[in-house]
């Protein structure tokens, strides 16, 4: 059998490189297209609406009413409203576009990283956002077709599956630390107003104060809620009981049972509403 010649191999490599470059150029054109950018910005609106509803449900819990203060509770409320399924379909598509936009940002950021630690950190953080938005899109689309399930049940089943794995309690403990770390990051981002970097290039004087207030309070409140969720996962790891782990709804309900918990839950609920306001403002003023 004839062996490939070095020149043939070089030609094949050049063709593959040209094909990859054309694919990358096409992906960049799509990511920069106004229609795709508009869909991605609409994803921020959907995320904001979900946080508004979660915050409102948290306030209802604090005032003694029922409700499921998490993504599934918020999406179920949308699904039950007139035209809700259509809104969920539209929102799911918008969230997919936003997730893909973050993937593109991570990809092109990695191409330009040149080994810099700060650039690599940005890529990892951006990919994490893409995963979060993709998960929210999947949940929204499931509720749109009527097959959505409780976040609490999903959390319990995932935790139980981790518990059955080798070193399962350790894995659940690691999950707890990761969630707590993300929560602390949100608190720090709110206090230091680091979130304003996401708005560079498109900020406007008339919304500056609204963005600052809603972003600061929203990030801190969401961070507190995430730390509470992580604490529940940590307790599940310590007690080896997957039922002790819970999502946001369980964390907020536990928060309400603490001394002065009602006041704390009201503050967190208001903060989550403000985070929703910030997300909606970000849909227009985000630097994309």
Automatic annotation (TrEMBL):
Q: Name one Pfam family in it.
A: DUF1206
Domain DUF1206: residue ranges: 42-109, 127-193, 217-285
UniProt lists compositionally biased (Basic and acidic residues) regions at 7-26
Provide the residue span(s) of the region labelled Disordered: 1-26
Q: What is this protein called?
A: DUF1206 domain-containing protein
Q: Which InterPro entries match?
A: DUF1206
Q: Report the transmembrane regions from the record.
A: 42-66, 86-109, 130-150, 170-189, 210-238, 258-281
- Tell me which UniProt keywords the record has, alphabetically: Membrane, Transmembrane, Transmembrane helix
